[in-house]
Design a protein that fits this description.
Blueprint: H1 2-20, H2 25-36, H3 45-54, H4 59-83, H5 85-95, H6 99-110, H7 114-123, H8 128-137, H9 142-177, H10 179-202
């Protein structure tokens, strides 16, 4: 089981590095960031990190593309929640088994901490797609939604870009040396993001 997971992770790493080296890498990054904000399970960091590590001079451009794609995808998630919740939105919530947390997230948005939750979801491993769909379902004003998404997503992706721009060679060597542990930790963060939604439903 562990060996199979390790093999899958290394294959995924090789594919992301190969994609990052291609001329259309920024478009691929934009596409991943866009669909992740409403449907796709894996965060765009999986493409941003190798792209910025391989081409440090493009690190901040990659962060900008990633931010733009993610926020535009977030607007799509908002539209799904606002106009197509019964047809599409609820199916996405069920796909990620987030039904238990859904009501609590909706209550957060309707309370005084809705904006803070959106900002946290945009920056942390909390599934951003759930936050975008819920924002639309609760009719959060669109302008604050876009502004907070830009702030949270931009802070996250530009922080990654800044670290890779400043310490690229060191970080890249560290990734090569400790990839197994880093990848498993990354998976753990994704799991913790969904666990956080579960905890919200019982708080």
């Amino acid at each position: 089981m562990v060996r199979r997971l390790r093999h899958w992770l290394w294959r995924g790493k090789a594919r992301m590095e190969a994609a990052a080296a291609k001329p259309g890498a920024l478009w691929t990054l934009f596409g991943i960031a866009f669909v992740e904000a409403s449907v796709f399970p894996l965060p765009p960091d999986i493409m941003l990190i190798p792209l910025a590590a391989l081409r440090r001079e493009r690190a901040f451009l990659a962060a900008a593309v990633c931010t733009l794609g993610s926020v535009m995808g977030g607007v799509l998630g908002y539209a799904i929640g606002h106009g197509f919740m019964d047809v599409v939105g609820w199916r996405i919530v069920q796909l990620y088994n987030a039904q238990v947390a859904w009501q609590q997230v909706v209550e957060l948005y309707r309370g005084e901490f809705g904006a803070w939750f959106l900002l946290a979801a945009a920056f942390t491993p909390i599934p951003y797609k759930v936050a975008t769909i819920a924002a639309g379902a609760t009719a959060m004003p669109l302008v604050p939604f876009v502004g907070l998404s830009l702030l949270g997503r931009g802070a996250r992706f530009f922080l990654i870009a800044a670290l890779l721009w400043a310490f690229g060679p060191v970080i890249r060597r560290g990734i090569e040396r400790y990839f197994d542990y880093l990848a498993l930790g990354f998976v753990l963060l994704l799991v913790l993001g969904f666990v956080a939604l579960r905890v919200l439903s019982t708080s």
